[in-house]
Each structure stands twice: as C-alpha cells, then as structure tokens.
C-alpha cells in the first residue's frame, strides 16, 4: 500500500503523504493486492495475404511492409537469438565502448553497477515496452543468477497503410486500449495496423547491480514520440530552470528572456520539451524539490512531530540516519494477551530497496499478525539511509521500546518472553 505513496520518492515524500498514511492506520489495516499483468495475446489486426479481403470495411493489407518512417531501422541487422548470448557482442574489451542511448538493439548483454543504473535513470528505454516481473529471486542475492528477474517486452509500433504518411503511434500496454487505438483511423485517414515485435530485455537485479540482456534486433522503425529523459538531459533542464526560476513553461519553450531577445530553449535539450504540459511537470518537480530541502525539510519535520507527537517514535540524523514511525494501534499489535495456536505469534521483519530515490536507502518494516483482520499488519516502519548493523540496531531498539511501553500501559510485566518472537 505504501508503493503509491512513496515509491521512487524521498523521505520528504512521506511527510507530504502523511494525511493519507494516517487515514490508512486509523482504518486498523493496510489492505494488500497483487496485480497480475497479462500479455497482449492474439493480434488484433493480423496482416493478410496480398489480394485477400475481410468481411468488413477495412482495407487489404500486404504482408510486405515498407518502413518509410525512419531510415535508422535495424531491419538489415543480422538475425541473432538469445542462444548467441554464449558468444556476446559485448566482450570484455568492447563493454567500455558500449554507450546507453535508450535504444538498445541487437543481441546484447551487460552488467551495470547501481551508480550506472542511477545515472542512466533505471535503464529506461525509448521503445514502447511492457514490463512483467516475478516474485522469485532476491535483490540481495550474491550472484546475478539469483537476483530479482523482470522482462521488458517491446510492443512494436502502430502505423498506417499509407506509404506517404510519416506518423508512428506508440501501442498501449493493455489489450482493450490497444484495440481502441486500432479501431481509429490515422490522422491522414488511412487504416491503422499493429506491427508486432518479439524483442525483449531481461533484467536481474542483485546485490551489486543489474545484469541486463537484449534478445535481438528490432525490425520496425523507432517510435517518434519519446517519453523518457536521459540523466544528462534532466541535468541540463534543471540547470536552465534554476538559472531562470521565474520563467514559466511557455517562456522556457520559446527561449529564456535575454537582452537580445529569447535565449536558450528547453527544446534544444530534447524534443520531449515541445510539450508545454511536460515542461510544466518537470519544472514543478524541480521547484518542489527546492522547497522541501535544507531549512524547509527541518521545519516540515518539526511540524510533523508537533502535529503528531506519537507518530515519530525514534529519529537519529547523521552518517547513520534512521527515522522510525509507529501509531498507537500499530504498537498495540506487538503485545498479545494470549498465544495463538497457529504459527503466527512472532514478527516478520523485512527491508527493501526501491521505495526511495536514494538507492542506498531502505524501508524497514516489522509486521505482526492481526487477529481482527486476519492479516499481517505493519507494527513499525523505519526510513534508513543504509544497511549497516547500526541502522538495524536503531530500528529494533525502537521496536523493543514499543513492546515495553505497550506492556507497561496494560499492566503486563515486562519479561523476556515478550521479546522472544522478534
């Protein structure tokens, strides 16, 4: 449930999301849901052989397609498969020359450190893709083979049967929206069809980084509409916004005001910035980040403790930073009046990367079984800026303190048995 609140955010995000978190805790449960994603399945509009027609009004499509949109298509690239990964293109000597540009093509494989992953914005690509994950694997695995595996499948493109049209459309990721796209006509009036692609990337996230492979070459043009910015493009945009904080989205597109007229434009950084809404969104991220940093963060944290004095149960800042959060209801779950017959009397402790933008930061969670809701509920959250022994020490000290305080409030003797299940 915390995923939509603080995924890809920072600790400041947690402060801004406090009202939603508190409403969840007051409900005495945090509901959980596992979402399973289906593949697109059968083609919506399969190409037909030359000279054949369907029963509807749709035009005849030839099995031979002319890629008129983009001359950089890799249709001439030699066919390779995952079997060829035993003889990878990226050898030890060639790896240093590999440059990630968001358009991985052909059979490739490479190991990325977490510093590289962060610099390359989580290895985002410009191809239209859909990601499917798995519950197997461990992000703390000591080898990439045991890491958390995810597969990113290319969705191909949508184009029309007009050889003079240069429009390429990104396919939607789910079947119904994709069907709706194909039922529409191209802006030029021609019939749209979905050109599929079998290329997929596989990523294994493990303790030292990400092991990445690409299965083959794309036989279709590149989508002309891109969604992602590279790390360098983000930095250039941020520098321009910070240098001209009063210039709005339209001014950034036209060009920042100067003595001799409009100056540098954000459209020189990326074509993405021709979209005024996207410029506004990215500009807001930078300005909001500036507002909550430094003194602003200290003031916000002070107000958090003043408004909710029992919520922050422990905090330490420095080389080791740990902030532990707990409500009275969460604390009440830590002490039972009776022992349950099922093997659910102890606590479950977990720590995970990926909730915060800082890759070294952890979300540490201790959960206990709640008889009323018949589910595992969190009894303590901790933000931790690392995974050293001292980080976990602060979390468990806060946990033991909560157990002792709850037992004392109920008039229960504080004995070792209360802490045995941790």
Which features characterize this protein?
single chain; 422 residues; alpha+beta
Task: Describe the 3D structure.
With 422 residues, the protein is α+β, with helices and mostly antiparallel strands. The protein is built from 12 helices and 12 strands. The protein folds into 3 domains: 3-33 and 310-418, no CATH class; 82-216, no CATH class; 241-292, no CATH class. 20% of the residues are buried. Mean pLDDT is 77; it is low at 1-9 and 19-96.
Low-confidence runs of at least 5 consecutive residues: 1-9, 19-96
Tally of strands: 12
User: What is the strand arrangement across the widest sheet?
Assistant: 1-7-6-3-2
Mean pLDDT value: 77
Question: What's the number of helices?
Answer: 12
**Structural shape:** globular
Span from first to last CA? 23 Å
Class by SSE composition: alpha+beta
The oligomeric status of these chains comes to single chain
Proportion of strand residues: 15-25%
Rg calc: 27 Å
Instruction: List the secondary-structure elements in sequence, H or E.
Output: HHHHEHEEEHEEEHHHHEEHEEEH
Number of domain units: 3
Q: How much helicity do the residues have?
A: 25-40%
Q: How would a crystallographer describe the biggest sheet?
A: 5 strands, antiparallel
Biased composition (Low complexity): 71-80
Biased composition (Basic and acidic residues): 46-57
Region (Disordered): 46-86
GO molecular function: DNA binding
